[in-house]
């Protein structure tokens, strides 16, 4: 790449970059690096320490605890998960309504979420503080459900994006049904698109037979979408 003045001094077949252009590009690169480092520093500054983080810097002055369900078939209770009212209220409108008003959770400082496991709830609380979470396919499903319930939109979107990246022929039907139940529109569209691309093998799958029994309206929706696609293809031809 050449600056305007260099074009007059060098022939077109000459290779390389002039010193002036090189220095300008280097300065731009350094500026970008400084901006990136500055943004990283700001994010680190704004990041809250999670009370479920075992590090010594974890805050201890929590004023509310969350309780998850005990493992299935076990009588032992799981440890409570500490948190701050202010953080929960700022991250979730559901928590805000719960803790702001004269509800039992507000008075007792105890929030029972008995439809999730301890590990899922712990990851959920950690995300509310740090915007960080480690996902596998099961954790993504569980956290998406929890994020939808408590209206943590960015977590739901993050889990949905992860699940879309894992869609394949084997789980497309299950993903489609899951997306319907939990209003995950992008996941629904991705799963439906894959199903429509593989309609010839759809009815042979066990998941399809289960869907026919459990929720036949979704089967109708799949075939309606397939017919619309075929009509659109015919019209284009």
Automatic annotation (TrEMBL):
Q: List the SUPFAM superfamilies hit by this protein, alphabetically.
A: POZ domain (SSF54695)
User: Keywords of this protein's UniProt record, alphabetized?
Assistant: Coiled coil
Keyword Coiled coil present in the record's keywords: the answer is yes
The pathway where this protein functions is: Protein modification; protein ubiquitination
Kindly list any coiled-coil regions of this protein.
Answer: 18-49
Q: Sorted alphabetically, which Pfam families does this protein's record hold?
A: BTB
BTB domain residues = 62-137
Q: Kindly give the InterPro entries that the UniProt entry links to this protein.
A: BTB/POZ_dom (IPR000210), SKP1/BTB/POZ_sf (IPR011333)
Q: What is this protein called?
A: BTB domain-containing protein
Which species expresses this protein natively? Colocasia esculenta (Wild taro)
């Amino acid at each position: 790449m050449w600056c305007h003045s260099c074009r007059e001094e060098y022939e077109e077949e000459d290779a390389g970059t002039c010193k002036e252009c090189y220095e300008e590009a280097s300065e731009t690169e350094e500026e970008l690096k400084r901006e990136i480092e500055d943004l990283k520093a700001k994010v680190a500054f704004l990041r809250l320490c999670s009370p479920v983080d075992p590090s010594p810097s974890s805050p201890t002055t929590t004023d509310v605890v969350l309780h998850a369900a005990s493992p299935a078939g076990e009588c032992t209770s799981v440890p409570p998960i500490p948190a701050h009212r202010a953080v929960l209220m700022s991250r979730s409108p559901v928590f805000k309504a719960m803790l702001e008003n004269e509800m039992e959770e507000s008075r007792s400082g105890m929030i029972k979420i008995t439809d999730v496991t301890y590990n899922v709830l712990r990851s959920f609380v950690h995300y509310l503080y740090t915007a960080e979470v480690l996902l596998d396919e099961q954790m993504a499903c569980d956290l998406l459900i929890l994020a939808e319930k408590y209206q943590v939109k960015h977590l739901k979107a993050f889990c949905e994006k992860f699940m879309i990246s894992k869609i394949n022929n084997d789980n497309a039907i299950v993903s489609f049904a899951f997306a319907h139940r939990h209003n995950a529109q992008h996941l629904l569209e991705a799963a439906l698109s894959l199903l429509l691309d593989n309609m010839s093998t759809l009815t042979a799958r066990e998941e399809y037979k289960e869907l026919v029994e459990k929720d036949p309206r979704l089967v109708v929706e799949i075939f309606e979408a397939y017919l619309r696609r075929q009509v659109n293809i015919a019209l284009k031809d």
